[in-house]
Design brief:
Immunoglobulin-like, mainly beta, 6 domains, 1 helix, seven-stranded parallel beta sheet, 1% helix, 702 residues, Jelly Rolls
Length: 702
């Protein structure tokens, strides 16, 4: 229903009479004002119940109203009044009038905060309330002024206390209320009475950070550091014994500020700081520090060694400190104290310390690991002690030294070849020395040493062994604490039986085809296993060779190697020897190949034997027929220089086979072959080409 048309600010009324037979019951309706405003009042039996005014919040939105009615006849009246005589469009509406059973009227009980409470910007305020309503609620929310906040309690329970939190970011006085909603009831929305809360600018805070309670001395300038916190700081004041000492009118917010003050007289003082903001909110620091000002300045002690946070192992530590006195006083004594876990374990006293002179008279051996600290307290003649300084020492457990070692390349090891002994020492204290000890048949054979080896780094010793046998070895290491440990083993040294000789820069040995590669033929003969083979690659080798063991000495098939001798290129002192495939250039020596011993089985084949001054090949047994079973074949033998030269000279030989050799002599009197006290020498029918004065020496033809 809408109110009637009004003129000149008149009043329009709507009335209804209702009879309640079985009360009490409720009357409820929805109502609102036009957007042009007005004033709508509800009466029951002529008594005022409620109204809607144009100054109310949401006056032009539908609102529900309910009130109880007792048994009997009642007159319901709605009266609308215009507030503007000129307006012809101000109306009031009522709708959905309902007379029904008495339903409890919803209520919101406010608990806190009360209107006199004071809160500060940034505080998180709790709004406590209890909804009173038998039916189910959708939610309750907090309203600040005319606006709902995003703070809600979903499905609140009747009679249960709830809290809604809200943080205010600005100062001021705020109206607030709690609004509850139920979409299924005729009470769609109801609101608590408005309350008021005051939000103030928070007072400042101030904290003292240094120097704390302490001592000072007459004439000293001391400082006190404080940190104020407030966005609107006005000033901070230093109080000494309750009296203003200094004022800082421009304190820096949130950072350390400093007051300085001069100590004129000895005595006991109390200091604190008070800070105020622009609203004259003043707060005193929670700390009040006691400061004692003495007449005499104390000694000064510098702890020099060991430095703070020093780390060591179980050993003797020497302590060094220097004491001085600003007043020029002499010292009574100085005491060194050592602590573990703040408990004193040792005190040492120097009864006659000297001013300004470093004292190194104290030392102490730490016998177990742990965290220690030490200090020195010195007293002057007036009994004033120094301000103690504390240094910390960590004594670590000296873990055992470890050494791991091995012989590099665990395969065959040969005489006179470099063998690497690889080892890795590890120690937490520091390494001093590592030594390789070698033993043969249990007896010391030799050693090598490394001073100050690197910790936990693999290092090597290099050795060679001239004899084929088994050697034992030990690598022993010491740390700086004289602890030691070692690693031991054995290495077997053998002789190679298949070796190669090459000339560096000219030829190479086939990789992997030989036991050992050499650059000198003599070294290969020295090391070779008796009966072994030596292959010599292309090249020029200047050596005088002595063959003292059974072997085969063979030149490369493609390009023959050349052996130059300064005395005698090859001397054979052993049987079972084969020499093949060489150019032997004696360079005017007496013999290229010679035998002085009694030997059996000599093979000299396929060689070029050049420039022999006396004989190309000289075989001379010590006793009759003592050089046996000799094969000299396919050689090119050239001798020259003096009259009487001989290509092949045999003495005390037997069973000699000379076949298909070429023998040349370039002097008038020369002989291809000479024999003395020999038997069974076969040469005549064996296709030897001899270009000398005589094929054989005449006295021995028969």
């Amino acid at each position: 229903m809408r109110s009637g048309k009004n003129f000149t600010a008149g009043t329009s009324k709507i009335c209804r009479e209702v009879i309640v037979e079985d009360g009490p019951t409720n009357v409820s309706f929805w109502w609102k004002l036009s957007t042009d405003r007005g004033h709508l009042i509800f009466y029951v039996d002529g008594k005022y119940k409620t109204d809607i005014k144009e100054i109310d919040q949401n006056y032009d939105k539908w609102k529900n109203y309910t009130c109880p009615l007792s048994t009997g006849t009642h007159k319901l009246e709605w009266s609308f009044s215009k507030t503007s005589a000129e307006s012809e469009s101000q109306f009031g509406w009522i709708d959905d009038l309902h007379i029904g059973p008495c339903e409890e009227f919803p209520e919101v009980v406010i608990h806190s905060p009360n209107d006199t409470a004071t809160y500060y910007v940034g505080d998180r305020v709790g709004f406590n309330y209890t909804p009173i309503y038998d039916n189910e609620l959708d939610y309750c929310t907090l309203m600040i002024g005319d606006e709902e906040t995003d703070q809600k309690n979903e499905s609140p329970i009747n009679g249960t206390k709830y809290t809604l939190q809200y943080r205010f970011n600005d100062t001021g006085s705020y109206n607030w209320s709690i609004v509850c909603y139920n979409s299924t009831s005729k009470w769609k929305r109801w609101q608590s009475a408005n309350r008021t809360i005051s939000i103030m600018d928070p007072p400042p805070t101030v904290e003292l950070s240094s120097p704390g309670p302490r001592q000072g001395y007459e004439g000293m300038n001391m400082s006190l550091t404080y940190t104020p916190s407030d966005n609107k700081l006005k000033n901070c004041t230093l109080y000494i014994n309750g009296t203003v000492d200094d004022v800082n009118c421009t304190p820096e917010n949130g950072t350390a500020n400093t007051f300085s003050y001069h100590c004129d007289k000895s005595g006991n003082y109390t200091a604190h700081v008070e800070c105020c903001d622009d609203s004259n909110n003043c707060v005193r620091s929670p700390q009040s520090w006691n400061i004692t000002i003495l007449k005499n300045q104390p000694p000064i002690v510098d702890l020099e060694y060991p430095e703070d946070n020093y780390t060591s192992h179980n050993k003797t530590v020497h302590f060094v400190y220097t004491q001085d006195d600003p007043d020029g006083e002499e010292f009574e004594n100085c005491t060194l104290s050592i602590f573990i876990n703040e408990s004193s374990i040792k005190e040492m006293v120097n009864e006659s310390p000297r001013k300004g002179v470093a004292d190194a008279s104290f030392n102490w051996t730490f016998d177990r690991p742990g965290n220690y600290s030490w200090t020195v307290i010195c007293y002057d003649k007036e009994g004033a002690p120094n301000d103690p300084q504390l240094h910390h020492i960590t004594i670590q457990k000296d873990e055992p030294l470890t050494v791991t070692a091995r012989v590099v390349d665990g395969g065959e090891h040969y005489v006179n070849q470099t063998i690497q002994f690889e080892y890795t020492p590890t120690d937490d204290l520091g390494l001093k020395r590592c030594v390789l000890y070698l033993y043969a048949d249990g007896l010391p054979y030799g050693n090598r040493s490394h001073e100050s080896p690197e910790n936990n780094i693999t290092q090597t010793f290099n050795c060679s062994f001239p004899q084929n046998r088994t050697y034992s070895w030990s690598i022993t290491c010491w740390d700086i604490g004289q602890n030691k440990n070692n690693s031991t083993g054995n290495v077997s040294i053998t002789r190679p039986d298949n070796v190669c000789v090459y000339e560096n820069g000219t030829s190479l040995c086939e990789a992997g085809a030989f036991d050992v590669d050499y650059e000198n033929i003599g070294d290969a003969i020295r090391d070779l296993l008796p009966g072994g083979n030596i292959t010599v690659m292309e090249g020029n080798y200047t050596e005088d060779l002595v063959i003292d063991k059974p072997l085969t000495l063979k030149g490369n098939d493609d390009v023959r190697p050349t052996i130059y001798g300064d005395v005698e290129p090859i001397i054979i002192k052993s049987g079972d020897v084969t020499i093949s495939g060489f150019i032997l250039d004696g360079r005017n020596v007496s013999h290229n190949i010679c035998v002085y011993n009694d030997v059996n089985i000599i093979n000299i084949t396929n060689n070029s034997i050049l420039n022999g001054k006396d004989e190309g090949i000289y075989l001379h047994g010590k006793t009759a027929h003592s050089v046996k079973n000799v094969n000299i074949s396919y050689n090119n033998i050239q001798v020259f220089k003096i009259s009487g030269v001989i290509g092949i000279n045999l003495t005390n030989c037997t069973n000699v086979f000379i076949c298909e050799n070429t023998i040349g002599c370039n002097v008038t009197t020369s002989y291809g072959i000479a024999r003395k006290n020999c038997q069974n020498v076969k040469w005549f029918d064996n296709k030897n080409d001899i270009f000398c004065s005589y094929k054989v020496r005449p006295t021995e033809i028969s």
